[in-house]
Amino acid sequence: RVYQECTVKLRSIYCVAPVVLLAMLLGVLSGSARGAIIESDFDAGSEGWTITGDAQGGSVQPDWHSTGGNPGGHISATDNVQGGTWYYKAPAKVRGGHSDAYGDTLSYDLRQSGTHSQFNNVEIHLRGGGLSLTRETSHPGTSWTHYSVALTESGGWLIGGSPVSQAQIQQVLGNITDLQIRGEFISGSDLGRLDNVVMTPE
Questions:
Q1: What separation in angstroms does the CA of 196 have from each of 47, 60, 61, 141, 148?
Q2: Which residues make beta-bridge pairs with 135?
Q3: Most buried by CB count within 10 Å: which residue of 34, 36, 132, 133?
Q4: Which one, of 106, 107, 135, lies nearest residue 122 by Cα?
Q5: Does residue 62 have a cis peptide bond before it, meaning omega lies within 30 degrees of 0?
């Protein structure tokens, strides 16, 4: 009856099968209900994030700042200048089975204290299911730089230097054990900042 009441002129524009509308609505509600695996805006603290590698004088705790983020609060760390590369390490809530994260995005904001003496290294480590994935990105600037990475085989992830397969990234997401985001880009003294880490449906 819905189609019978549509005029020829309007049919191609406005007449959508009710079943299609229902499917679209359910899809939106399903994505909203699932929410984010990670959602750290650092407005109230470091939210369990830690530092691994050559920073913070050996402490694993980042510095938390209530202002200066993008916007609001953020975390930072200072290089020890002893060699190696330091990373921000995600909290325990990230670990475990997140198979439904396939097709989602990992996004975050970075800022560094300078852009001189840059060096290359892996920007993201994502481990799980007995596998270790890596991702390289461009370096951030001295103002906040936004990153968004697809959690799919087309998202630029590598395993052992080769492009990851769909099965491999799904295996990792099925039992995440570690997520690290690079904070150091300068060969020498530096300070890096992180804000707005989100792993959520697109």
A1: 11, 20, 18, 16, 11
A2: 124
A3: 133
A4: 135
A5: no
